[in-house]
Amino acid sequence: QVQLVESGGGLVQAGGSLRLSCAASGLTFSSYTMAWFRQAPGKEREFVAAINWSAGNTYHADSVKGRFTISRDNVKNMVYLQMNSLKPEDTVVYYCAADPTPRFGLSRNQYDYAYWGQGTQVTVSS
Fold this sequence. Notes:
Layout: E1 3-7, E2 10-13, E3 18-25, E4 33-39, E5 46-51, E6 58-60, E7 68-73, E8 78-83, E9 92-99, E10 115-116, E11 120-125
């Protein structure tokens, strides 16, 4: 079955960096659009970034543009989120997600993503 396993979360000071990783298995990874979402307690899941199958197209939410970068390695079946200049408001759980449907463009809609990881907590102290 499809498994997405995130890692790399933790505690960091404001202004610091973290790199999240997501290991995918049980799917033809190079065929899937991959994305990162995040969710605070009691709030809707928020789109962070997405990357198409070839890594030729990426999209980042305005709230993270210029600070976060999504990338992927189709040989290792991995997707990454490099997070720089972290702010206390980036403190939430981050989820990796996979969209199996070929689309025109990259979806920011969580309901288009069929597979999800368990999440990894990122905490940014001020």
